[in-house]
TrEMBL record, chain A:
The keyword Phosphoprotein does not apply. Residues 45-64, 108-140, 141-170 form the 4Fe-4S ferredoxin-type domain. The keyword Cytoplasm does not apply. Keywords: 4Fe-4S, Cell membrane, Electron transport, Iron, Iron-sulfur, Membrane, Metal-binding, Repeat, Transmembrane, Transport. It is found in: Cell membrane. It holds the Pfam family Fer4_11. Residues 1-24, 304-324 are annotated as: Disordered. InterPro entries: 4Fe4S_Fe-S-bd, 4Fe4S_Fe_S_CS, FDH_Electron_Transfer_Unit, Formate_DH_bsu_Proteobacteria, Formate_DH_C_sf, Formate_DH_Fe-S_su, Formate_DH_TM. This is Formate dehydrogenase subunit beta. It comes from Tianweitania aestuarii.
Automatic annotation (TrEMBL), chain B:
The lineage of its organism: Bacteria, Pseudomonadati, Pseudomonadota, Alphaproteobacteria, Hyphomicrobiales. Its main location: membrane. The chain crosses the membrane at residues 34-52, 72-91, 130-153, 165-190. Pfam families: Ni_hydr_CYTB. It comes from Tianweitania aestuarii. It comes from the Bacteria. This is Formate dehydrogenase subunit gamma. It is found in: Cell membrane. It is a multi-pass membrane protein. The keyword Acyltransferase does not apply. Gene3D superfamilies: Transmembrane di-heme cytochromes, Chain C (1.20.950.20).
Length: 324, 229
């Protein structure tokens, strides 16, 4: 049995093979509480994006469009390199360009970050999703959208701490980077990593990627980037897409990369306490009403009431009443 | 002005073969009420299906998850419009009065059905007014927060943090309006003879005398004496 691929560089295997990443590899499934444990544990994979090596060529974007066979509309140039202007249901990854003046050196630094799904270990999209099986997490760490189960509600957009999922106006389903789960399943690395000419994007096991990142960080530190570091945010349990940042002390300068991403407390309250307290409140009231209905005495009109009414109507005049 | 809280256009007493019946709701109001009721039930069922994974199977009633997601907001618009019509007709009759304070202070007698101990009430008692105003409040909150997260049209223009809060408020309000709905339905069943007001539009004289005597008294005193009688 084949485990996770260790690199994106190698050519595809030529011998026929089974694919992994099926139902039996799921560790989480949206809106499903009784998911059986996975039959096996695949080695955790990760994509490492070294921002300091990126030249902004957008080969990754092209490779992504080509592999996923999406058709982004031709956009409009508004004077920035970022193109399209935002992630869309047809553009799962996006080079975001920002110009930042380093206050310490007064140098202009051109920061280019490849944006896309971070494949959180604790995915907010999956937590928010109400449709059973529309979002899944495999034992290798990949978080994937299963489009035939998606209902297009957009809850994943609210759950995501990175603002990644996009809902198609055409088929009302959510789209995002799959970490090329369909390639990884057959032993290949993601298309973007394969296409990257400077190997700013590399792919392999999460452990290998961390080791590789350590080398890169040591190199950057030796070149004067004292705050160089690995972006693997613990607030979401770590991610399976990681960045090497030369300024890891301030991730927000990289086109608003969150400094400390975590699933919003509001989302937690909505998907947690509200559900249970709500169910209890509605349940108690409904059961209480039913019990009162069965065992309590109904409020019936009595013969005296009927007589009183008759008297009032035949007298035609009610007694003058007090004003309230 | 104090009369408006008790009597509304169309309210009238009829005596036929010795039976007193009192017009409480006209045909238009009843049709509108059942539109409101149907849309509220459809909203509750589709909403609960999207809130509790164990109830997701209820989306089958609407033709699957995609259809449920698409229909739910339209049910909401129907509810809002039909309730809004209701609101314009009924809000004046539901303004709080001093009687309501006394009525609420004797809530034990209300629950025990000892209505002879309660003050005489107009067309609506404090409980009914509570239902009316809480329905109005929650429907308003639900339509506003619902539009904010209506993915097909409006959600893309609302900041995500605002949408998160809207979803939380929407869920809490939905739970509470379902509770109000349970109270409303149960009160109508427990108080025998009430459902008639929303089916035939009339109640018996005894019902009006027992539960809304001030209203009934007012109608009786207004009753024109038919010259042929």
């Amino acid at each position: 049995m084949m485990d996770s691929p260790k690199t994106a560089v190698s050519n595809p295997p030529v011998q026929p093979m089974d694919s992994n990443l099926g139902e039996r590899d799921l560790v989480r499934r949206s809106a499903t509480s009784d998911l059986p444990p996975p039959e096996r544990q695949l080695t955790a994979v990760a994509k490492l994006i070294d921002v300091s090596k990126c030249i902004g060529c957008k080969a990754c974007q092209s490779a992504c469009v080509e592999w996923n066979d999406t058709h982004p509309a031709i956009g409009e140039n508004v004077g920035v390199y970022t193109n399209p202007h935002d992630l869309t249901e047809d553009m799962f990854t996006l080079m975001r360009f920002s110009e930042w003046i380093n206050p310490e050196t007064d140098n202009l630094e051109w920061l280019i970050r490849k944006d896309g799904c971070m494949h959180c270990a604790d995915p907010g999209c999956l937590k928010a999703c109400p449709a059973p099986g529309a979002i899944v997490q495999y034992s290798n760490g990949i978080v994937d959208f299963i489009h035939e189960n998606c209902i297009g509600c957009g809850y994943c957009v609210k759950g995501c701490p990175f603002n990644i999922p996009r809902i198609s106006k055409a088929d009302h389903r959510a789209y995002k980077c799959t970490l090329c789960s369909d390639r990884v399943a057959v032993g290949q690395g993601p298309a973007c990593a394969k296409a990257c000419p400077t190997q700013a994007i590399v792919f392999g096991t999460k452990d290998d990627m961390k080791k590789h990142a350590d080398e890169r960080i040591a190199d950057l530190k030796s070149r004067g980037y004292a705050n160089a570091g690995l972006y693997d945010p613990p607030g979401v349990g770590g991610t399976h897409v990681m960045y090497v940042l030369h300024h890891n002390d301030k991730p927000h300068i990289y086109s608003d990369l969150p400094d400390d991403p975590k699933i919003s407390g509001v989302v937690q309250a909505w998907k947690g306490a509200t559900k249970y307290v709500g169910l209890a409140t509605m349940g108690v009231l409904a059961v209480g009403a039913a019990l009162h209905g069965v065992f309590g005495k109904p409020n019936r009109v009595t013969a005296e009431d009927d007589e009183g009414a008759e008297k009032l109507v035949t007298n035609k005049t009610g007694t003058p009443e007090e004003r309230v | 002005m104090p009369d408006v809280e008790r009597v509304q256009p169309g309210d009238d007493i009829h005596v036929e073969r010795g039976e007193i019946s009192v017009n409480r709701y006209g045909p238009a109001a009843r049709v509108n009420h059942w539109i409101t009721a149907a849309s509220l039930i459809l909203l509750a069922v589709s909403g609960l299906a999207l809130f509790y994974p164990s109830l997701f199977f209820l989306t089958g009633l609407f033709g699957g998850g995609q259809n449920t997601r698409a229909l739910h907001p339209y049910f909401g618009v129907v509810l809002f419009i039909s309730f809004f019509v209701f609101f314009l007709q009924l809000w004046r009759a539901n303004l709080p009065t001093r009687t309501d304070v006394k009525w609420v202070s004797q809530i034990n007698d209300v629950v025990a059905g000892r209505e002879e101990k309660l003050p005489e009430v107009g067309k609506y008692n404090a409980g009914q007014k509570f239902i009316f105003w809480s329905m109005a409040f929650f429907i308003l909150v639900l339509i506003v927060t619902g539009v904010m997260v209506w993915q097909a049209y409006f959600a893309p223009y609302v900041p995500i943090e605002t949408q998160r809060i809207a979803l939380l408020v929407h869920a809490i309000s939905a739970v509470l309006i379902i509770c109000v709905f349970i109270l409303h339905v149960y009160a109508a069943i427990w108080t025998r003879g009430t459902l008639r007001a929303m089916t035939r539009g009339t109640v018996t004289g005894g019902w009006a005398f027992r539960h809304h005597r001030k209203w009934f008294r007012e109608l009786a005193s207004r009753r024109r004496v038919d010259p042929a009688e």
